Structure formats: structure tokens, C-alpha cells
């Protein structure tokens, strides 16, 4: 990883990265500030805190972002919405405050340039908790046609996730989707505090990307 010429770095650890973060940070010559994309699961104890701890102990000025699930995960339904006007998912009525990735990017940009965010950990969520059934309805509104919600069992969903996730990650993901803690369902004020405006809703995200579902 080459940090040449960078004074501030947005750090998103890739899915295939398995090693410690300390050697990477040790090579960050000239870097003064790092903004780490972590996850809400660190704050709720679902995920390990090793990367956050490495950044906080690095000697760099740091900000940690802990986003909830991404609204853009709904792209997984794009083909079924286009072909059959349906969304298949487990836990149809369990609502979580998914966040528009553009709001994450806006908070990250602010943290990269404004020292007021140094030493802060931000919990990033959308404007309201929305269930998969709600998301299907919002996508239908965006494309101008009803989108049917099709319930999936946990086992069916797990089989699909194992196509691109290791088993322990699939199981942890399904635990959050099916049995979220109160903290995982709570809307955080941090996006509004940083950006001076409310976070975008899932419906706004769906409207912006309606073309992917038509």
C-alpha cells in the first residue's frame, strides 16, 4: 500500500484482508489523519474491535465510522425485481436503519478535512428503521409498479450468502438481520450532527437508483 503524498487517509479494509492492521499503519509515512470504515457490529459486540484498536493506538489522528447496513445491499434484488417484480428475503418485518452509502461518504469527507472530528467514533444510520417488506414497497414506488415481497427461511438465505461469505460471517449477518439488538435498531443522530441535515431515507436511495430495478 502506497501512502506517498497523502496527509489524510480513508481506510476501508478489503474483505480478503486477514492480517493485522498495525504493519499497514506503520508504513503510513507522512500521513497525519486516518478515517477508518468500521461497522456497527463492533459497537454492539458482534464483530471484533482489532482494527479500531490498531488505528487508535497508531499515533495518528483518527476518526472511526461505524455504519449500519448499507441501503445499496438492495442491489442484490435488482435482477428479481426486473424479471419478476419480487424481492425475496428472510425476516420480512424486522426493521433496521440502513444507511445510504453517500451519507457515509459525506461524513468520511468531513472527517478527513476537519480536525473537529479527531478522536470521535460515529454510529451512522439512516433516517428510520425499514424492514425488507418496507424496502420492497419503496422499490416498487420508485419503479412505478408493485413489487411483491416473498418470505425466505433463514436456511434459504444462509445458502445464498454462502456463495460469497464464509459461514461465520453469514451466520453473524443473519443474526443481526433476524435478531437485532435494541442498539442495532436505533436511529443515530451522528449523521445529522456531522452534516447538519438528516440522513437520506431508503426511499430516497431507491428513487435515485430506480433505473437499476426497471
Automatic annotation (TrEMBL):
Source organism (scientific name): Amycolatopsis vancoresmycina DSM 44592
Superkingdom field: Bacteria
Protein name: Nucleotide-diphosphate-sugar epimerase/NmrA family protein
Amino acid at each position: 500500500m502506497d501512502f506517498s503524498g497523502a496527509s489524510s487517509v480513508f481506510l476501508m479494509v478489503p474483505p480478503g484482508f486477514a492480517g493485522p492492521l498495525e504493519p499497514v499503519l506503520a508504513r503510513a509515512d507522512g500521513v497525519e489523519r486516518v478515517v477508518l470504515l468500521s461497522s456497527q457490529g463492533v459497537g454492539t459486540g458482534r464483530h471484533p474491535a482489532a482494527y479500531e484498536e490498531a488505528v487508535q493506538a497508531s499515533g495518528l489522528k483518527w476518526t472511526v465510522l461505524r455504519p449500519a447496513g448499507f441501503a445499496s445491499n438492495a442491489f442484490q434484488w435488482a435482477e428479481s425485481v426486473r424479471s419478476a417484480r419480487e424481492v425475496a428475503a428472510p425476516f420480512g418485518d424486522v426493521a433496521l436503519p440502513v444507511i445510504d452509502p453517500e451519507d457515509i461518504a459525506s461524513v468520511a469527507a468531513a472527517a478527513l478535512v476537519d480536525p473537529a472530528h479527531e478522536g470521535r467514533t460515529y454510529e451512522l444510520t439512516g433516517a428510520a428503521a425499514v424492514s425488507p417488506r418496507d424496502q420492497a414497497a419503496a422499490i416498487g414506488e420508485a419503479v412505478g409498479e408493485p413489487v411483491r415481497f416473498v418470505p425466505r427461511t433463514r436456511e434459504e438465505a444462509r445458502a445464498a450468502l454462502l456463495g460469497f461469505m464464509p459461514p461465520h460471517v453469514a451466520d453473524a449477518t443473519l443474526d443481526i438481520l433476524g435478531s437485532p439488538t435494541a442498539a442495532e435498531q436505533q436511529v443515530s443522530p451522528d449523521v445529522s450532527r456531522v452534516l447538519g441535515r438528516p440522513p437520506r431515507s431508503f426511499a430516497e436511495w431507491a428513487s435515485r437508483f430506480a433505473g437499476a430495478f426497471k
